[in-house]
Design goal:
Layout lengths: L1 E9 L2 E4 L2 E2 L8 H8 L11 H13 L5 H5 L2 E6 L4 H11 L9 H4 L6 H10 L5 E5 L9 H9 L4 E11 L2 E10 L1
Parallel strand pairs: 4-5, 4-6
Antiparallel strand pairs: 1-2, 1-7, 2-3, 6-7
Helix pairs in contact: 1-2, 2-6
Length: about 180
């Protein structure tokens, strides 16, 4: 496997290809989105996990041809699934006196929605998977590497994307070729 590009996004810090990116650091996910592409209105309907993964993918896939994207795969991991949005949705249904289920939140109560949003945006027709792991260290284990190796795609967008809150999140995603 060959590393082509990588991005790491945390609150107030962005590293692109291992280098601190002053243009993107200290910005909100919306500001980073506007800086990178800003042309996908559906972004504003996404939950935090999707926004985080989407912004990372936008940067990683910005110079990949449509043909290469079509044959790519997206394999992402985290430890909390979509728990942040799950809790927001739960607040809309837990009180029978104040019951107002929100479809806008419900649709994002599955972590794999982020891989779908990336695939739709970039017309990726390869594998899209989202796995829940105990911790980030497990991602480097041999079974995970085998999963990526077994992918039929020549390009794989893969890594860790976890969103706990608006001030606690992390994406560490790579674009690799096989």
């Amino acid at each position: 496997m060959k590393l082509l590009k990588e991005i790491k996004i945390e609150p107030n810090k962005v590293f692109t290809d291992g280098q601190f990116n002053a243009d993107l650091s200290g910005k909100t996910l919306v500001e980073i989105y506007r800086h990178i592409c800003g042309t996908y209105p559906k972004f504003f309907k996404m939950d935090g996990l999707c926004k985080l993964g989407f912004v990372a993918a936008e940067w990683l896939l910005s110079d990949v041809s449509a043909e290469d994207k079509a044959n790519s795969s997206v394999i992402l991991f985290n430890h909390g699934g979509s728990v942040y949005t799950d809790r927001i949705y739960e607040d809309t249904i837990k009180d029978s006196e104040n019951y107002f289920p929100s479809p806008a939140h419900f649709v994002y109560t599955l972590a794999n929605i982020v891989t779908g949003e990336i695939a739709i945006r970039h017309k990726i027709y390869g594998e899209t998977s989202f796995y829940i792991l105990d911790n980030e260290d497990v991602m480097n284990a041999q079974p995970i590497e085998a999963l990526i190796d077994e992918s039929q795609s020549p390009l794989v967008l893969t890594g860790w994307v976890d969103y706990e809150s608006e001030t606690e999140f992390k994406a560490e995603i790579k674009l690799i070729s096989k």
